[in-house]
């Protein structure tokens, strides 16, 4: 490493260049540049090597980061902390323990508050989680031994870990200790919005709704304004506890402005308890207050409308989804959030509203959305609606939505057993003509269809299926 004082000019230029290259997610240019430097480990200052170490760890290249760490002549606390965080993030507890032991023995580097925060966060989120006494031991030992004060992040990390472990009593003692220190502590580790929210979440998880509400009032009285996540944590906890009167009290707080998450939580609670009308009223309230409805909002209210038999309104909401483009491009990768396959389409078929079901499905596909077609077809077959299942199978084929051999065979078998050999043959022919060159149905389904066609006296069609059976047999022999 460079000598004391300002690094020589070549080292400054090399470090600046390396920092610039590390801004990219692609580490190859930085590593290539490193190979061009003469003795990079002695040329580059510590901050540049630490930046490379951190970048390697962030990219998941922990082995390369560990190799670089071992090559650094005099690792700094930042070097130890960067590798320690990476090892804990990857669940390599044994390697992290060995690194910490080396850190404690190092004559040139001492653990600091970042070390403690890294340990508390990494250990408390790992599996299996350490016991509360183990975390408290680190919390007390490192600051006392290396003379540094825990900060707010330290307290919040430990508090969250204790709450996740269900040790509410110890968490409350730690929290009260922070509050008691507000008058005279120099550590600056006073309860903030993260601290209060963690405690409120813990109370809600234990079903202690009244204690959670009392704490938010203490929070406001102590000059720590609650944030949306605090309010939404309470709303969710109160809904899960069935304390809707407390939810109403939260809504009446002057500083609370409910958002999409708030209303979705409330709708989900009403639906879970069978209060369909209340869920629909909450959705209407969202619209009145101009709160953005997302895919989950529409999904829940469509399900509620279907369960209450209001199919017309449900269909109107589908139109609204398409017109407002509720499912943005970033959400289209998870289109099943609006689970129309089980909510609206299935219910429409159950109520023999087939035309509506087809119309809505076509509209969805025309606008670039998909439904869980496999699930819809399986449900139709279960309800013995094989003609509708065949129509949806052909519709999927036209829209280039591959369903697979299992779904095709399910529909073909159902049609044959329902005495509809002609419709089964039509489906098979369309699948062969417009599908892939590979098998479109299981061999047993072809045998069943061949037999059904012969019984129906459709010998020409049976001969066609016989040829497909022989081709299927030949493919099986080739694979074996």
Automatic annotation (TrEMBL):
Q: Extract the InterPro entries matched here.
A: PPR_rpt, TPR-like_helical_dom_sf
Sorted keywords for this record are: Repeat, Transit peptide
Q: Which Gene3D superfamilies match?
A: Tetratricopeptide repeat domain
Q: Could you confirm whether the keyword Isomerase appears in this record?
A: no
Query: Per its record, how is this protein called by name?
Result: Pentatricopeptide repeat-containing protein
State the similarity comment.
Belongs to the PPR family. P subfamily.
Cite the repeat ranges for PPR.
151-181, 192-226, 259-293, 294-328
Q: Name one Pfam family in it.
A: PPR_1
